[in-house]
Amino acid sequence: MGNKKEVFDSDIIKVRLTKEEYAGISEEQVKQIYLEETGKKLDAKVKVYKSSNYINTDSGFAGSIIHVYNPKKGINEAYTITRGTEDAKDWEYNVFGLYGGITQSQYEDAKVFHNEVIKDIKKTILLIRNFKLMNMVWGIL
Q1: So what's the pLDDT on residue 96?
Q2: Which residues are within 8 A (CB) of 60 and not within 5 positions of it... i.e. 6 or more apart?
Q3: What is the CA radius of gyration of the chain?
């Protein structure tokens, strides 16, 4: 896979994907965004994995992973999108949990989610390139 250009190589595509994740992004929306921003049809299978299907969301963590795959074209990429601060529960976590050193539950949930999805993908596909589209808390995932 080397130095091959990533599928979602423009900042505007990444921003739009991240924005749509908050509303519940679908495979069709991913392909539509790609078409609108590149003028080309995305010639790859797209699967969206939702954090709510993998982890208990009591911590407030939410996100998605977009897997883009076409072995004939050498495409096998996973884009992890984690949400930023959305509500009072998130602000409480930021102030008292993360910055106060009391808990890292959202961060831990993000790691578990990411690792479980990658493990599921690797059950059938061995090599994968990972990209992360994150808000401030998840910069070290």
Answers
A1: 58
A2: 87, 89, 90, 93, 105, 106
A3: 16
Q: Tell me: the pLDDT tens digits for 64-122?
A: 999 999 999 989 999 999 875 565 665 565 565 555 666 677 788 888 999 999 999 98
**Cα dihedral across residues 118, 121, 122, 123: positive or negative:** positive
Order of strands, sheet of 129-133, starting from the edge strand that comes earlier in the sequence = 45-50, 63-70, 75-82, 129-133
pTM recorded for the entire structure: 0.79
Q: Is 68 helix (H, G, I), strand (E, B) or coil?
A: strand
Q: Which helix (H) or strand (E) holds 28?
A: helix 27-38
Please state, in angstroms and rounded to a whole number, the distance separating the CA atoms of residues 130 and 67. Answer: 9
What's the pLDDT tens digit per position in 39-56?
999 999 999 999 999 988
* Separation CA 20–CA 26 (nearest Å): 9
CA dihedral 113, 114, 119, 124 (to 10 degrees): 110
